[in-house]
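Milestone 3.1: sequence recovery, worked example.
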């Protein structure tokens, strides 16, 4: 069985503390890590403003900074609106 951690990034809420995310990921040791953007759709539009939705370049930048911190993973591919990392000894 393979494990995954998915981070849904929301501007102004959880778009910082990259080193803390890296520590959690290393402790959990999942096979995959996915970083994606919060999408301003559906009922969430009543809870958050559109500015909470990160742009693609912001997710790419966050993913790059996270990759620097978790060197046991490789950024394998873009996955829709986000990025996927895999453990260096895992397969897709």
């Amino acid at each position: 069985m393979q494990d995954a951690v998915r981070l849904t990034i929301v501007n102004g809420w959880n778009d910082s503390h990259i080193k803390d995310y890296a520590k959690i990921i290393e402790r959990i040791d999942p096979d995959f890590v996915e970083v994606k953007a919060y999408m301003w759709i559906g009922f969430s539009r009543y809870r958050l403003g559109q500015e909470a939705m990160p742009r693609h370049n912001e997710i790419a930048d966050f993913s790059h900074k996270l990759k620097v911190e978790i060197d046991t993973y490789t950024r394998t591919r873009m996955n829709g609106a986000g990025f996927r990392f895999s453990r260096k000894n895992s397969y897709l």
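The chain has two helices and four strands. The CA atoms of residues 31 and 37 lie 20 Å apart.
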